[in-house]
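Model the whole thing, not chain by chain.
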Amino acid sequence: MKKLTSWALIRQNLSRKPVRTGILAVIVFLFSFTLYCGTVIGQGLSQGTRTTAERLGADALFVPYGYDAKVQSSLLRGEPSSFYMDRRFSEEVRQEKGVEKVTAQLFIATLKASCCTLPVQLIGIDPETDFVVRPWMASAIDRPMRDDEVVVGSKIVGQVGDTLTLFGKELTIAARLEPTGMGFDTSVFLEIDRARRLLLASELGPRLNLPAGLDRNAFVSSTLIKAAPATDIKELVNRISQKYAAAYNLDFVVVAGMITDMAAKLSFFSRCIHVFSGVLWVLGALVMALVFSALIRERKKEFAVLRIIGASRSALGRIVMREALLVSLSGAFAGVAAAMLVTTLFNAYIGAVLDAPSLEPGPLYRLAAAAGALLLGLMTGPLACLPAMRKLGRIDAYIIMREEL
Amino acid sequence: MKKNILELHEVSMFYGQVKALQNITFNVREGEWLAIMGSSGSGKTTLMNIIGCLNKATHGAVFLDGEKISRLNARDLTVIRRDKIGLIFQQFHLISYLTAVENVMIAQYYHSMADEKEALAALERVGLGHRGRHLPRQLSGGEQQRLCIARALINHPRLILADEPTGNLDEANQNTVMDIFHQLHKQGSTIVVVTHSPDVAAHAQRIVYLEFGRMVKDVQNAHPHGRAGAPAEAGR
């Protein structure tokens, strides 16, 4: 026996106007999609930026002149690059007042690696002085790396114990690092002297075009400095630059500035997304309000009949409200589901497009964002149909019936 | 003597300066068939509106089944209309996207609980048992009117209120509908028909005539069904 309930009536009415129902659902879909994507991507970027600052631990980086942008791309997005400077700078700068820690890193871009289909960034670290990677590496490996071992970033393919072939040498993966949202995720870490030896022994070695005067056994790519507490970093960097820039052909990156630039970009992006979501919501709600208003006009006679056969005004209100809710529910669910899929699949790509490190927020945050987007999406229809419901209250059933005569 | 189902005492309806109804007083007894006749603008619609609990009179009192409905609020009027009145319209006013049986069930749903078996039985009674799964647009005018009657009857109303029930029908269908009314009357239903047609009014036991918002005549029809003789005058 067929069951007739108000929900059955609502479903029947919605399905007999699929285009109208679809348009209303698409409006809510777009709003929920944008809201979820904006919130999660914004959070991912903000988390990525915070992590970058925390992970880097350095206050300033010195690189060969003209490579300041390259080092940022390499650190933030893992774009492989190779550049070289004299290691002696890192020894000399240690003596400067206000410098607490100094370490050097060697960046080597591989064009082929058995581990990956894409080129990876090798980062050589100095186990004696490193204060950037080691503290963070400590949670993954609690002993010094052996000469034939590497530690890989979270996005490098391969399990702990697997071997990678780098410059013809087989190296064992000793540990995998937690995701950072930075270029470190697509980097392979090894001891700096081992990295240098690998490079020189490879087929690239004889063709390596080092800047004039650079010792083939003592070159690095960057020198990272941690300032002593209460030191004016800008003043320190200016002082070091003035003293060493000419001799070592240096350029520098102030990490705080880099992070501030990113934060400003993120804040702008975040504002844009929220303004866009807000505008979309208002426009969506307006369109829905107009559609519901037209719908009430179109269904005036049907509602009048229902009134006459005994439906109260509140019962009619419930029909309209439930229709709006059902449409919103389907649109919001589809929007949030699609947004979850897109943000999961394209998180890294979005970060790259926005030129900022991105870290996918945790499941709890994503769940909360999904619930929020769903809730706001759900509210769109019922709120938009409120003005139409006021019209419904003014339906004078018998007069409407007589108008038909 | 049967009790009054409907009582109107000095009922008036004013729309600003316009006097749509003035001092209408009459009663309808249980099981009686009354026709309200009048030309366009006579106040028939306004009167039906008031009896059907769709509007409230400006002055006077209306009692339905012993309950004073003239001062009830809109919500209570809805309940009275749902529980005690079966409305039949000239234009049928069916829900286009519901099948015939669903159109009957929807009236059950707002009254108490939808019961498909009972709804199909109601369709059977008006000769539409085989058309239960058809949409209104798939039915002829006469069938739609019979469906409207089945819907009006499904909740066993105390009063059947019909507004020009044959206005849109050809002669054959008019006769079918009037036959159904006769059956209902025989079974004890109280019927009030609003019409401008003397032929339809002639089926009633009693006819109230309206002109310019005033009741001008209240006559007993000595020979209902228009079989013979002229209606006889009756006291109010």
